């Protein structure tokens, strides 16, 4: 098996440190302790989890255990996924919550079909682009905080849509574990503690540029003026009451009941145009996933726009035209082709991806012929300075959580959920315990753009769950968190498995790249892109030699060591013959994969 070998440049010692602290800070990379040895597999990874009766992989060990408890109580994989998602909204509020949106792919063994659900919310029906621009007072984009980027929270409706089709246990039972943890408390996990501290500092800084109401949020998460630390017990009784009400009274408790009145009154007081009718009319949409064959019988399946899932399929159709396995996984050639394929796909994302109710998606973008044409634009020796979108025939740092659950009957759930930037837009309605998303920040203000803001419209969406078939059979749930990292992350994991024979855990632990930049779905259609080449960020596991080679090829490369921008991965594979489950989780998060 080819592996990505850890490598980094030595730091020159300029002077002898005068204190122990300075000595620790100035040690060379060669002096730092590295990975231990393993009897099998790569020494920078650990074993995947293997079980048979049920499995869950989430970004928090307690959420994983809740999912398993629901399965053992007779719940379906959908019941367990909803329970885990609710728990993560409490335990990982920096990544998700019921103030955000949800997308999922469900494999139903009874019908043998993949079902996709788009649980994303819309803009206010009574507010036009001109009215929004007047509120923006000359700004050329929506702010990241406050009332203007808020869209209807779609998660709760998506829960009930999924539960109505595939659930077995009462929703009150599904939400009960989180209600209990919210009232009694749970200890904060280390990575989440770091994100909470980052969030508090970011909101404090943004209040100066965009004044917005933050007192309610402070009371929930930062009551003593600081973020909770790792191991500190955290309680959210307001969220407990909200979830208990939803479990008891159903979907309408959130969208057409007392909770709605509280949310709408608060949003309107902040300057929002939302009405109770906007909430009551919200409805999730069942959609059909599309799949693209990569090689060796592996097909990647994604959800259609307004999500960016089809960008991963476009990358697959480009990269299938070159045999990446002829080079080592950490070589400049492999990273170059992945990066250029991403840039080509995202040139189309910026031009064509939007709410399909308002702008038709050109199906030609997913054809193998189109993939070959786009591949032909790649210079194997150098980074192309700028890629434009293709010309199909037209007919008309995000923060996220991903989880997956598979039950003993073979139902497989791939679910992703987010409040978008940070914890959301900073707004918390009194007594509710959750923050509203700021997903509307991703609207374009160019009226000619397919993704332009319009009343009652869903913005371009970054969160995407994935599914992989093998030889036409359901095989693997897969997801990777983090804004524009997600499609390129899906493809990198697929390449690791298919081209380099990595197991499920190694495929996620291996060093990643994240290309950021190029034209964005929020930019105007005409005029130059603010950053046409973009920046190629890589983890320290990419060697110095490869980094230098990529720079010589014209890429702007930066090495980032903290893992934050490279996503958060979970996956479960199911052997179609034996039913044995193999799970993996993300070393860059607090997560856990577990089964029974």
Q: Rg from C-alpha positions? A: 23 Å
The helicity comes to 25-40%
Question: What share of the residues does DSSP label as strand, in percent?
Answer: 15-25%
Class from secondary-structure proportions: alpha+beta
Q: Going across the biggest sheet, name each strand in turn.
A: 1-18-17-13-12-9-8
Shape annotation: globular
What can you see in these coordinates?
This protein is of the alpha+beta class and 596 residues long. The chain has a domain at 78-99 and 116-286 and 421-442. Helix content is 33%, strand content 16%. The protein is built from 18 helices and 19 strands. It has helices at residues 20-25, 61-72, 77-91, 129-136, 155-166, 171-184, 190-209, 215-221, 237-249, 252-255, 258-269, 276-280, 309-319, 332-352, 368-375, 485-498, 504-509, 544-552, and strands at 49-51, 54-58, 101-108, 113-119, 186-187, 233-234, 285-287, 290-293, 298-302, 398-407, 412-421, 466-470, 473-480, 513-516, 535-538, 557-559, 569-574, 581-584, 592-595. It has a seven-stranded antiparallel beta sheet with strand order 1-18-17-13-12-9-8. It has a seven-stranded antiparallel beta sheet with strand order 7-4-3-11-10-2-19, with helices on one face. The chain has a three-stranded mixed beta sheet with strand order 14-15-16. A hairpin with a 4-residue loop joins strand 10 and strand 11. Helix 6 (171-184) packs antiparallel against helix 9. The longest helix has 21 residues, at 332-352. The radius of gyration is 23 Å and the shape is globular. The protein starts with 19 loop residues before the first helix and ends with a strand.
